[in-house]
Every structure is written in C-alpha cells, then in structure tokens.
Amino acid sequence: MRCSCILLEVCRLAASWMLTLMMRLSMICSEPFGGKNGCRPPYRTLFFGEKAMTSVGWTVVALVSVLHLTSAQVEVAPKEEIPPYYVDAISFASSTSQHSRVDVFVQIPYRILAFVKKEDGYRASYEITIDVLDSTGKLCNEKVWTEDVKVETFEQTVSSQGYSLVQRSFEVFPGLYSIMTIVRDEETRQSQRILQKLRVSDYSGSQLLLSDIMLVNRLNLSGERKSIVPNVSPNVGLIPDAFHIFFEAYNEPKLDSVKFVIDILDQKKERTAQIEQVQKLSPGRNQVFMRIENESLSVGDYTLLVRAFAPVQPEGQENQSLAVTSRSFIVRWKGLPAAVKDIDIAIEQCVYEAKSSEMSHMREANTPEEKQKRFLEFWKKRDPNPSTPRNEKMESYFARVEYANKTFKHYIEGWRTDMGMVYIIFGPPNNVERHPFDIDSKPYEVWTYYTLNHSFEFVDNSGFGDYRLTTPIWEVWERPHD
Fold first, then answer.
1. pLDDT at 303 over 70
2. Looking at beta carbons, which pairs linking 315-321 to residues 24 or more positions away fall under 8 Å?
3. Is the pTM above the cut of 0.85?
4. Structural domain boundaries, residue 18
C-alpha cells in the first residue's frame, strides 16, 4: 500500500507539472506578437511548441490513465503459505581444506505425489533437481536423479506422516549461495520448486570453529549402527518431549574441552531458556549432540544460539566466546494453521468469530496445552468438512489475519484496524476505489462487495494512513453474542 501511495504521489506531481506547462504554453500561443497564428516565437520555435504541446498532452493522458488504474484494484485473496515440501541445507567442513561441504536434505510428503495402484501395492516416482547457484546466479553444481516410492496401502499414500527423504552433498568454496530444488512428479508431470539462501562458512582457520546446526528428528547412538534422522522441517513442535541438535566442532587449537552454552531466543530476542554442557574434544573434527526440552516452548518462532567457551575463563573474560553458530526454528502444534505463531495472540484474533463466552473460555485456560485444546475445539465446531484432516475455515480465517497484519498495520497491528476487521470478516473486496489526492476531501477508500450489495468507506482524517470506517458495518454483520 505504501509503494502504491508513493507511485500515486509521483504521478500526481508529474501530472500537475505537465498541466501547468500546458497552460503556460497555451497562454504563450494566445498572445498576438505578429507571428503565424498569433504566436510570439518564429515559425521554427512554433513547430517545437506544437510538438511539445502534443507530447505533453499524451503524457498527461498516460498519467491520468495510471492514476485511474491504481484507483480501482481488486484485492487478491491470500493463501496460507504452506511449503509443498521441505528443504534444509547445512554446511560442514570438507575433507578438502579449500572447500566446504553442503549437505542438502529434501523431505517430500506423500500427499504431493501421485501414487498408482500396482499388484504389490502403490507406487510413485519423482525426479528431483538440486542446483547450487553463486551470488551472481551462476550455476556452480547440479544433481538430477529419480526416486521411486513404494507403499502397501492406500492409507499410507495420504498419511500426513508419510514422506520420502533424500540427501546429496556438494563441495563449494565459502560464500553466499542459493539452493534451488525442483521436484517433478513423473505421473502428473507437475513441478514444484523452492529457493533458499545459504551462507557457507570458511572452516580452514586455525581457531575453534563450529559448523551449521542440524535439527534432529530421531537419534540412535547405541550399538554398532548409529543413525541420525534430520528434522528437515523447521518445526520441532511435533517431536514429543524433546529434540536434539547436531553440529561439528573443528578443534584445530587442540583444546582438551569446551563449555557449550545454548540460548533459545524468542521473536523479541529475549532468552526463554539456556542450556550448558561441558564436552571433551579430540583434535580435529568432533561431533556434538545436545538435547533440548521442548515442553516449555510455546507456539512461536525461535533462534537457537550456540556459543563455545573455555571451561575455565580468566577473570574479566567471562563473556568472550571462542566460537558461535546459530539457526532458526519454529514451534507449531498439530492442527494449527501455519500463520498461528502465538496461541495467546491467536485466541485474541478470534474476536470477530467468537462469542464473549467462547473468548473467555479460551483465555482462562491455565496452560499453553489447554489453550491449544480449547482453541482447536472452538474451530472444530466451525469445520465445514469434519471428515478431512484440514479445517478450511480456520485456515482461511488466519490467512486473512496474516494478510491484514502485513497490509493494514499502522500504529496498531493490522488485524485490529478498521480495514483489517472488514477484511477478516468479509474477505477481499470485489472492487477498491482509492482517492488519496482528491482536492476537496480527505484521503479515502471505498471497498465494494457485490455479494453483500454493500460498500464500506474508510477515511484518513489524520493524513498518516490511519483509515477509519465511516460506513456502519452493523447493516450487514452482527458481532457474535451469547
């Protein structure tokens, strides 16, 4: 919206300047001075004046057309941003000192694959491409191969727990890269792609260095066959009780041991938990596993910060770390839309859908788990298709909330504004008329909903983008009540 306003302001100023120039040229041509057609300049300059007038006229028409087009736009209904599959790229030290190693993990849910019934079960096949691009977009490396998936029952093909996990490694120089993955279903021929940035560190230094961090879904270190299953999705909320992290420590200084300190920071960069672990190190490469309890982590976005310290620090150097690494992760609970990042805020955002008694019932829960339970029970009553795992009404509602927060935020959150309220309740309008520069009125917008046969007018009385609803909403909507 801000970019549109800037464009409109530029167009308005340009149009005003052009109109002024036209008027002045017209006045010049209307003054008798003995020249042809009463124009003051000689004929050669008059010809230039005619061309200028023509050019100016067309420019004004073009600018007016731009103003008209930007004053009537139909908003696009938002969709919940759920990735079709998950990608995690992690850098480690390579066995070659001049390079680093990038491990790319791709987790493809069965739900996006087209399974075909066979005599021995169900089969799907997909082609996967992983491209490594440098900072200029130049292709550095590419790997393409085909994977076959076989399951025994139809239920497995649609299970939310089923997925295909693949991994490939690349040798690259330290620097900034883009990792492009493309998954193409062999049956439907449909492709889906994900692009993500990755900064690859230099691990060739002589000091203590730490690799990137891997989130671990399952870990088995007992017996001869040790196994690590990565949590490719950034969400650790579905892992019961606790999750592990894995990283490597490169001990070139040949330290005997270090103290690892893990800080878990929330969206406000405030520490919510801290874990300390002293670990003995061998010279060279060391594998480090650390357990993190997630029962106390509520729904939200987090940063995991790992710092290495000397076990005994000299006085005055207590906060000087030897090495640092970090990564982001999220906590989402089963059944919650991806847009829900804080259960308390999500409950408050239900105000346009819930009765007062329902709001109180959700607010008064004593634990985050109980709040989630009551929250999901509230939306389950409104699920248009209870037989399916998804709740389309809840997803649509919070997709609108997320759009309102991104688009209508002012000095308060977007979902609390008048525009946000109307958008969340009724969805995207069929037509929007914007009037930011009318001479005889304050800036205002008119949203029209054809299905309601109703329009809403918002006026910016302050001039700072704080649009307030002036049209009664109660004619077409009544707040839920007991």
1. yes
2. 321/261
3. no
4. 2-70
